[in-house]
Amino acid sequence: MGLQEKRAVKAFQDDSYKKLTNEINTLAGYPIEFDVNWDTLAVEDRADLYEEGFTKVYFTPLINALKEIAADDMGKEALKDALKKVVIKNEGGHTYPPSAYSFKSGVLTIDHMPFGNIDDITERSTVLGELLMKNL
């Protein structure tokens, strides 16, 4: 990761990441642990797309799924009992939601390329919501 990528990651961490994780934790009603492998997200020569890509690929779909799940107390309680941690990484080269998400032992893993199908938020939100609901 070069200096340009490091700066872009730091800018995202300092501004959007905090806001997005706060929104997620507020929706869930409890603090969810996040483990983000920034080095794998920081694709070289794409620093100009980090803000949009990270937000649309990793966080907005999770926010959308949680809005549906946590719409009532039953959903919030089920979520709290089941989801303990979210791991975000880009190791498998996945660009389609069915292969990018997994849930095991309280850990939701999002392994998706940060710039693959960037605007396909609806499909990611739907697949992620279905996966979580199945495991709650």
Can you summarize this structure?
With 136 residues, the chain is of the alpha/beta class. It is built from 6 helices and 4 strands. It is globular.
What does this structure look like?
The protein is α/β, with parallel strands linked by helices. The protein has one domain. Helix content is 57%, strand content 13%. The protein contains six helices and four strands. Strands 1-2-4-3 form a four-stranded mixed beta sheet. The longest helix has 26 residues. It is globular. The protein starts with a helix and ends with a helix. The mean pLDDT is 95.
Q: State the shape.
A: globular
Classify the secondary structure makeup into a structural class.
alpha/beta
**H/E topology pattern:** HEHHHEHEEH
Give Rg in angstroms. Answer: 14 Å
Number of helices: 6
Q: How many distinct folded domains?
A: 1
Beta-sheet strand percentage? Answer: 5-15%
Write the topology of this structure.
Elements: H1 3-28, E1 33-36, H2 38-41, H3 50-69, H4 73-82, E2 85-89, H5 97-100, E3 101-104, E4 107-111, H6 121-134
Parallel strand pairs: 1-2, 2-4
Antiparallel strand pairs: 3-4
Key features?
single chain, 136 residues, 6 helices
